Structures are given as C-alpha cells and as structure tokens.
Fold:
Amino acid sequence: MKKIRLFTPGPTMVPDDVLLEMARPIEHHRTGMYREMAKELHELLQYLFQTKAMCLTFTGSGTSAAEAAIVGCTPAGHKALVVRNGKFAERWAKVCETFGIDHQTLDIEWGFGATGDDVRKAMEADAKIDTIIVVHSETSTTALSDVEAIAKVTREKGAILIVDGITSVGALPVKMDEWGVDVYLTGSQKALMLPPGLAFAAVNDRAWERIDSGKTPTLYNDLKAYRKSMDTFDAPYTPAVSLVRGALCVLRKIKERGVESIWAETTLLANATRSATRALGMKVFATHPVDSVTAMVVPEGVDEGALRKTMRAKFGFQIAGGQGDLKGKIIRFSHMGFVDAFDTIGAIAALEMALEGQGYAFSRSAGVAAAHAVLMDAKN
Ligand SMILES: *Cc1c(COP(=O)(O)O)cnc(C)c1O
Structure:
C-alpha cells in the first residue's frame, strides 16, 4: 500500500482527528446544537480573518463565495477592476462576464503580483471603477499581490476591495480590519486542511452598504440571505454539517496555536523549498513568490508529466503541475495546512530521485541538504 502525501495546493492533507470528528453522527441543522456550532464557527472565523466583520459560511467550493461577493458588490451602476495575473484571477473576470457586470481587467504578467501603484494607476485612468477584485496569493503562478498597499488605495478612493484569499487566509499574514479590506474570501481545502466543500466570506459594513444598494441576480449565492440567517446562527439552506464540525475542530487548533505561528512556519517551509530549488540548479518560477506554494521551473530535458507521475506512483508524493500557459513548465509544492518540515524534506528527496531517473544532472542530495540547513538554522 502506497502512503500518499498531498503536496497539491488544494486539496491538502486533513489531520486524522479532524477526519474522525467529521465521521460523527449528523446533527439536524435546525437545532440549538447546530446554532451553537455556527456561533462558535463565526467567532473563530473572525479570528482567522482578523476582523470584526460578519463571516459567512457557504456550502460550495471557494468559487461559490467569490461569485457571491463579486455579484453582490457590483450591482448595476458600479464598475469592477479585476487584477488578472493568473488562472484564478481569470475566473473572477469570467464571473463578471457571466453576470453582465461592467468591468475591466488589469493584466499583469504571470509570476508577478499587483502593487498599490498598479491599482492606483488603473483607477486614475477610469473614474468609473469603484470595485477592485484581487487575488492575494495567485495559486496558479504562485505570485503574491500587495493587499495591504492596494487596500490603502481603495480606502483613499472610497472603492470596495474584494480579496480572494483562498491560498492566503490561514497561511500568510492576513489582517482584514487593519489593512481595510472589505470582503475577504477563502475555501476549506487549502490552508484550512479540510476536505473541499466549504467557502467563507468575511464582509464588512462598507461592503454591506454597497450590497444593500442593489439587487443580486442570484438565489443560492445571495449574501443577503446568508446575513439574514446569521441573526439566529442559522443557514439559509442545508449546511454541510459534517464539514462545519471539521472546520470547528481545525479552527480551534489554529487559534490555540496562534495564527501568527502558522504564518511563520509557512514561510519557513517556503524558504527551505526555494533554497532546495536553487541547490538543485533549478529556478523558482514567480518573481514575487508567495509562501503558501512554491513553483519550480521544470529544467530543460525533463518531462514534467512523467516527473509528477513518478513522484506519485513510485514515491507517493502528489504534487501539482502548471495550469494554462504554464502547463508542462512548472511543478508546484504546497506549504499549507497539515504539512511539516519532514514532509517537505521527504518531497525534496523524492523529487531528487525522480529527477535522477530522468537523467537530470545535479549534485545528489544537494536539495535535501539545502532545505535541511534552512530548517536547522531556524530551529537553533
Ligand atoms: C483553489 C483556488 C480557487 C478556486 O477555488 P475552488 O475551491 O476550486 O472553487 C480560487 N482562487 C485561488 C487563489 C485558489 O487557490
């Protein structure tokens, strides 16, 4: 039997005690018991997002919360700017297109993140823009955008800022209220080390004012319906009770440990992996790399598909390839959730074995040693 270790940037590995918690008998959701759970979940989500804003839980993948936020925050008469620097950002432009939302894209080369100045320039070029949609950690290219700086600009200009934090919340520093982000989103299957199936949106009062000013052309993803049921810690439709149970279990652990300590560990694993990449004579893909996932450029002469296949079939490490234009060109390793230093060293060891199998020339064990050195330096 092969031991599979998920190194994909979603879904990620789920701790055993969380899996067991989710195996408990189903509670009916119209009960005091469920409301207690929903109330605690709300408080823990506020901690996670570092906010006093209302935090909503959706039964759906991350895209459900993103669609709800985009559609809710851009009623007729408003115009969105989608910062487009990867596959997920492309999806948010597609949401605008699908719902007929007036929007424009700010195209940024893949591998780069957006700065406050990028957003400022785009807003100054078109005074109609009053809603900014940005991906904090663009998982497809592993690029980081400067959300704190972008929020300064949107605050100054009175615009609404929606941030896709699907691979940042719970992995990278996220300070919703301090920075002034209006809607922050995440999903269950990435840094939150849960199975896929839940999405979360923290929505502040400025965003609610905008949402209340118009009609939302959706039923299942209507933020107003979710807000209304939060009066009694209910859900508008049947919630994924088992996943909510799992979420409580994970978020209690995160709070107990302190989210800052998780941010620091994520950075450490990213540093170790980047150091290993260079020691193997390879390149880190992103110019502005995130710490939640690392992309390595596949060296010339190495077959990316075969490499990933060997990693999984022979060594049990499931890593991700590239998406869109990056297909076949990069491989990605997650540093989110239930993954530690020794899993990471193992992944690098397996990578070296797979690379050697393809005849790639490098100094044997150099990657493992480089990663190990980073980890040892940090611990001592
Ligand atoms: C995974 C991911 C999404 C998509 O989420 P789903 O849960 O698949 O709907 C969106 N944005 C980013 C940055 C992601 O990493």
